[in-house]
Amino acid sequence: MIGRGVNPSVYDRKIGFERLATGQANALNEVVQDWRFIGAAMAKRSDVRDSEAVSAGVEDRALMSRFVVRDTGLTRGIKPADRLILRGVWDASGILQSGDIWTIKGVKQVSGARHAEIEITAVTSNAVSYTHLTLP
What is the DSSP annotation of 102-116? Predict the structure, then answer.
């Protein structure tokens, strides 16, 4: 539900969130870890200026952006250990099939916002687009 006065067109892209899940041991008794879909939200995105990204220690080929989402139970629980997926497609069991993977660098409440919002700062490089291939 959108509150009064909120323009839904401002949130112009759907982003997904994944959390690293520790699973069972494999045949070699190694603990298997995999990323699992935990939810999605509509967001507005703004790219960070180069000077800000450099001062934050972002590499040359990386892109840093801020994603602003509505403050919900899901978005309040997002941590830098999670990851953000742009243009993501997941299968029924929550495994990412394709999408652009972003590393979350910071999550904070937007101060002074008219409506409760959360800002997520994330970094990606052009080489982090993921497509899961199933071989016959």
Answer: EEEEEEEEPTT-SS-
